[in-house]
């Protein structure tokens, strides 16, 4: 009886302290390495969050339409190891990004590098590098 109670107590405590985790995906599940992108536009939003940092930018399409692109980068910690700070890219900055487009053809991509408005080029901690190693 004591063992059953202890096992139930441990299971209940584990369920209570377990943190929900954000869904994580592999590069190949969402992005196409054979669809490279190079975009220049104005930053509209920056989200420093785990597991990936995102930034959004308005890009003028060849037709003249303004499209808002979502670009995925590495984790905040990984970006800081590559020289990024939370102030590296601000709303209103004009940046150029290279990377890979989403498989679904949407205005979403995985950034490999970003040339900031200062002219400094920083690498974005792309998960594509890990996908190519496999």
How do you describe this structure in short?
This protein is of the alpha+beta class and 134 residues long.
Supply database-style keywords:
single chain, globular, 134 residues, alpha+beta
Structure description:
With 134 residues, this protein is α+β, with helices and mostly antiparallel strands. The chain is 24% helix and 38% strand. Strands 1-2-3-5-4 form a 5-stranded mixed β-barrel. The longest helix is centred in the N-terminal third of the chain and has 16 residues, at 2-17. The chain is globular, with a radius of gyration of 19 Å. The chain starts with a helix and ends with a helix. The model is unreliable at 12-23 and 130-134 (pLDDT under 50).
SSE blueprint and pairings:
Layout: H1 2-17, H2 27-30, E1 31-47, E2 54-60, E3 66-72, H3 76-81, E4 94-102, E5 108-115, E6 121-123, H4 128-133
Parallel strand pairs: 3-5
Antiparallel strand pairs: 1-2, 1-4, 2-3, 4-5, 5-6
């Amino acid at each position: 009886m004591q063992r059953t109670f202890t096992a139930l107590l441990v299971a209940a405590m584990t369920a209570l302290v377990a943190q929900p985790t954000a869904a994580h995906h592999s590069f190949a599940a969402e992005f196409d390495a054979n669809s490279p992108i190079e975009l220049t536009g104005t930053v509209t939003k920056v989200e420093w969050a785990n597991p990936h940092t995102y930034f959004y930018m308005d890009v003028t399409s060849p037709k003249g339409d303004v499209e808002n692109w979502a670009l995925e980068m590495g984790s905040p910690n990984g970006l800081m190891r590559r020289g990024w700070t939370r102030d590296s890219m601000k709303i209103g900055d004009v940046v150029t990004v290279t990377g890979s487009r989403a498989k679904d053809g949407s205005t979403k991509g995985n950034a490999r590098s970003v040339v900031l408005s200062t002219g400094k080029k920083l690498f974005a901690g792309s998960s594509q590098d890990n996908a190519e190693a496999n």
